[in-house]
Design the sequence.
């Protein structure tokens, strides 16, 4: 299982600050696919990136259960 | 590289950042102060709420500031970003850059705020009289 931190609009879409993914996902791309399938509203966003251990991660990067994973919807700081 | 980065719920005071970067060998202190505007696209804004993924936001800010140090001859830099609920006129962000000469300060300050807006995981929710929206989330 992978526990995913949620922020901003993604937290509103899912309705809680953490999302547990039970499906077998080993890459960033697979994780995004599962999230977009479970929450179609995520597909309507301008972008949805994934951070692994608080660094932006490319689609092919692998994820393990011990990684800190977060979904990063479009940022709007400043 | 002499810099400090802060993400805080406490109100930001630009003068504190200015003092923190001031050094006797500086010829200029360039400061950007972001403020909460009362309207967006003609719609009245009541308040803003900022949220940060803090450890990552700090990491990304470090990257931006260190890049600025490599690109321009900077002396000291302070970047502060606020989180939580802010009223109209309050300050969500302060950037202060001390340099020997003004041009590098203007350029570095603009680079830091422009890149912050693109890469740092901080999110802003605008609240209106009749609803709210996460800024930039949807096309």
Sequence:
């Amino acid at each position: 299982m992978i526990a995913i931190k949620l922020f901003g609009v993604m937290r509103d879409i899912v309705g809680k600050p953490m999302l547990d993914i039970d499906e077998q996902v080993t890459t960033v791309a697979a994780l995004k696919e599962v999230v977009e399938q479970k929450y179609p509203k995520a597909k309507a966003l301008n972008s949805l990136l994934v951070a692994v251990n608080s660094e932006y991660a490319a689609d092919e990067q692998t994820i393990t259960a011990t990684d800190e994973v977060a979904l990063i919807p479009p940022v709007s700081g400043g | 590289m002499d810099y400090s980065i802060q993400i805080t719920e406490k109100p930001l005071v630009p003068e504190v950042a200015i003092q923190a970067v001031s050094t006797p060998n500086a010829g200029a202190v360039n400061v950007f102060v972001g403020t909460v505007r009362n309207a967006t696209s003609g719609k009245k804004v009541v308040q803003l709420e900022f949220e940060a993924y803090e450890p990552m936001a700090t990491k990304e800010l470090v990257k931006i500031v260190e890049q600025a140090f490599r690109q321009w001859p900077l002396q000291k830099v302070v970047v502060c970003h606020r989180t939580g609920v802010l009223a109209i006129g309050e300050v969500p962000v302060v950037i202060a850059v001390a340099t020997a000469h003004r041009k590098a300060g203007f350029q570095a300050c603009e680079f830091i705020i422009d890149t912050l807006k693109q890469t740092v995981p901080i999110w802003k929710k605008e609240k209106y009289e009749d609803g709210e929206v996460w800024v930039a989330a949807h096309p």
Summary: Chain A touches chain B at residues 5, 7-9, 12, 44-46, 51, 54-56, 70, 72-78 (CB under 8 Å). The beta strands of chain A are 2-5, 18-21, 49-52, 55-57, 69-72.
